Amino acid sequence: MALKVLVVDDEPNILVTLALVLKSEGFEVRSVSSGKAAKAVLAETTFDLVVTDLSLETPTEGYEIVRAAQKQKRKPATLVISGFPDLLDKWEAEGADAGLQKPTEVPELLDTVNRLVGNR
């Protein structure tokens, strides 16, 4: 059974690219373009991994998504991505499992994703 990933980004090109890369690796991917939509999906569906941009409706909306993911019975791994290094510096303190800076190279993304879901 394919692992389920929620991808959240408000930049359409990045959202599509992340989804295609993850689908090509065999993941079942659901994509949304806002924090509000992500939190609604997390309230009704479980995932193995959540990959979210940090800066959505607010500069740190991605951390709100991480907190929403942590409320699930089976907590998914969480990966935050951002083009703003000063926001990304706090990923560990904010409860995310990993953080990557945009632009992210595909091998680095896949290495991180596979490390996060390796034991699921």
How many strand units? Answer: 5
- How far apart are the first and last residues' alpha carbons, in Å? 11 Å
Unreliable spans are none
> What is the structural class?
alpha/beta
CATH superfamily: Response regulator
N-to-C SSE series?
A: EHEHEHEHEH
Q: What is the overall shape?
A: globular
Looking at CATH, which topology would you report?
Rossmann fold
How much helicity do the residues have? 40-55%
Q: Could you describe the largest sheet, including whether it forms a barrel?
A: 5 strands, parallel
**CATH structural architecture:** 3-Layer(aba) Sandwich
Portion in beta strands: 15-25%
Number of domains: 1
User: Within the largest sheet, what's the order of strands?
Assistant: 2-1-3-4-5
- CATH first level: Alpha Beta
Q: Count every helix, treating DSSP H or I runs of 4 or more residues as helices.
A: 5
User: Could you report the average pLDDT, rounded to the nearest whole number?
Assistant: 95
Radius of gyration: 13 Å
